[in-house]
Amino acid sequence: MSNSHQNKINDWLSPVMESIKKSLFLRTLFIGFLILILQIPILMINGVIREREQTKDEAFRDVTSSWGGDQAIMGPWITVPYSHHKVEKRTSGDRVENFTTTETRHATFLPEKLKIDGSSSNDLRKRGIFQVPLYDFSATISGEFSKPDFSSWGISSEDILWDRAYLSLGISDSKGITKQSVLDWGSEKINFRPGSTAQAFSSNHGSPGIHALLGSYLEGELFEFSFPIQLNGSDSLFFTPYGHETEIDLKSDWPDPSFVGNWLPRSHEVGIDGFSATWNVPYLGRNYPQKWKTGSNLNEVIRASFFGVKFLVPIDNYRMGFRSVKYAPLFLMLTFITLWLFEILTGSRIHPLQYLLLGAGMCVFYLLELSLAEHIGFVAAYITASVAVVTLISSYSLVILKSSVKASIVGLIAIVLYGYLYVLLRSQDYALLIGSIGLFVVIAAIMYLTRNINWYDGKRKSVPILTE
């Protein structure tokens, strides 16, 4: 660049910077512009957090693909095939003939009583630096079935294919099954086979689960059943209220459950050693009948009736990271307002580049917090990152303000801000209330400290405590 061009730029910048230095209003606007500029690195940090979260999700999928994913236990139910006859009229020349076609359809029947008594043993499996919550679920599923009744559908007894009836249990990720299961059907023992056959919730055969052929074991009016199930899973465990009366008892050594779905437990206890929960779901509380036949599309209704528990990781580093970054503009604004108050109340001069450097140091806090949390946990990472950034801000403030008192005040305000942020992050239910009160206090303090400033001519009144 030639000297003439550089001189022209200097000639243009000099009066602009001089105007900003002399005008409180322009200086305030310029500081606001700097805060907007600093949103660029904040957005980039948001992208880094999202990328790390995706990496964690990939590690999660990698582990669960061989162990077992989210598990949903559907059933059990009985499926009984039957023959459906359809008469069609066909015209051949002047003749009209009736043709009868026969196809096999299926009827589904749910149990009168269903009880699942289960327990899960949970563990955190590491993949690299990431932790994946896994569990080993063991349960005894028992109850009663009434004999399937076709009378309300007008289906002839000769068309019912009793010898092809079977009992099914749907399991969303059947590769998690770890042990062979045997069905106790009255006095009979029947081995389960792979696949649920899916007649209860889908038209596609081969859906995940298990089934047992009942054949000639449906002679009688009431059938008691019982069988064990043992499977691996991760993250969550769901059930369906298939019984006319459904009772689920679940115990676990996981201390941080989140009960989700259409029904919450009737009773539960949660402690540091785990939790126990009991669900009782009546037939009238769900939105599908005790029996149906081919053509009833109940997929979405059944899936909407899932309920159960999610095994939460106590502190999700990435969720905390996203929540922290949300407050970054507010933190930048409050820190810059503190420095701005020093300027207008004490006559100190801070260059815009110094504002930017302080803002950059505050932005680095979120990267430090995230990177350290992946190795030492969120709490330790937050404390370490806070101490590092507060030390950096205080030290730099001492240089630019040339006053230990002023630098101490800046450092104290930074400590209060990061302590305040920690309270907000850990008190999600009260975050809005705490944030609103804090913002009100800050605005009130600014109004009080600037009450004697004449904004038109830029005259300011010094505050003795801020001068040396």
Care to describe what's here?
The protein is α+β, with helices and mostly antiparallel strands. It has 2 domains: 16-56 and 318-466, no CATH class; 69-313. The protein is built from 10 helices and 17 strands. Strands 1, 2, 5, 8, 9, 11, 13, 16 and 17 form a 9-stranded mixed sheet that branches. A hairpin with a 2-residue loop joins strand 1 and strand 2 (95-109). Helix 3 (39-67) packs antiparallel against helix 5 (317-326). It is elongated, with a radius of gyration of 34 Å.
Give a brief rundown of this model.
By secondary structure, the protein is an alpha+beta fold. It has 10 helices and 17 strands.
Radius of gyration: 34 Å
The largest sheet, given as strand count, sense and whether it forms a barrel, is: 9 strands, mixed
Give the number of helices.
10
Low-confidence stretches: 199-206, 459-468
Query: Distance between the terminal alpha carbons, to the nearest Å?
Result: 45 Å
Helix content: 40-55%
Q: What oligomeric state best describes the polypeptide chains here?
A: single chain
Rough outline: elongated
Counting helices, strands and paired strands, the structural category is alpha+beta
Number of domains: 2
**What is the number of strand segments?**
17
Order of helices and strands: HHHEEEEEEEEEEEEEEEEHEHHHHHH
Approximately what portion of the residues adopt beta-strand conformation? 25-35%
Mean pLDDT: 81
